Amino acid sequence: MKLERGIGMFDYSQKVMEHFANPRNVGEIKNPDGVGTVGNPVCGDVMSFYIKVDNGRLSDVKFKTFGCGAAIAVSSIVSEMAKGKTLQEAMTITNKMVAAELGGLPPNKLHCSNLGADALHKAIEDYQQKSAECHCPYCDGRISDEAPFCQACGKDLVDRGS
Ligand code: FES
């Protein structure tokens, strides 16, 4: 595999360089179904993933990364790997798979690939947690399990059996 002297003093694969120079799916999703943010306390880099879910599939995946070039390439490739996958399939993406998909990373940059799958999985878990919550049948506002009425629209939620 051809390595290039790339960002700073590290040797990166052409794929890393390409995704760093032209990252895919950068940005935020308005009203995302799930958000996951992870950070590395040592280097201070932070990665956030935003997802949209349709029929159990990731219909859109975007990211915002404050970090090194490798972290940006990792975010970009993870967004491509995850888009269109079912939630179960996306949960099987590992950090090792991410590094392999990029054609490898220098050993001291492997920690950057750890953020990618972790942030994606966190966004999926956030979605799963939200969809497990109760919603008002009238306005779809979030309600607590025991609420006698919806706090958003005020409708009575108690079944009086009539
Ligand atoms: S140096 Fe921290 S994520 Fe790359």
Summary tags:
elongated; two-stranded antiparallel sheet; 162 residues; 5 helices; alpha+beta; three-stranded antiparallel beta sheet; 35% helix; binds FE2/S2 (inorganic) cluster
What compounds are bound to the protein? FE2/S2 (inorganic) cluster
Hey, roughly how much beta strand do the residues contain?
15-25%
Q: Number of DSSP helices? A: 5
- Give the strand line-up of the largest sheet: 3-4-5
Radius of gyration, taken over Cα atoms and rounded to an integer in Å: 20 Å
Summarize the amount of helix as a percent range. Answer: 25-40%
Low-confidence segments, given as residue ranges, are: none
Largest beta-sheet details:
3 strands, antiparallel
Q: Which whole number gives the mean pLDDT?
A: 89
Shape: elongated
Cα distance spanning the termini: 72 Å
Order of helices and strands: EEHEEEHHHHEE
Structural class: alpha+beta
By DSSP, the count of extended strands is: 7
Explain this structure to me?
By secondary structure, this protein is an alpha+beta fold. Helix content is 35%, strand content 22%. The strands form three sheets. The chain has a three-stranded antiparallel sheet. α1 (14-21) packs across α2 (69-82) and α4 packs across α5 (110-131). It binds FE2/S2 (inorganic) cluster (FES). Residues 40, 43, 45, 67-68, 70-71, 112, 115 line the site of FE2/S2 (inorganic) cluster.
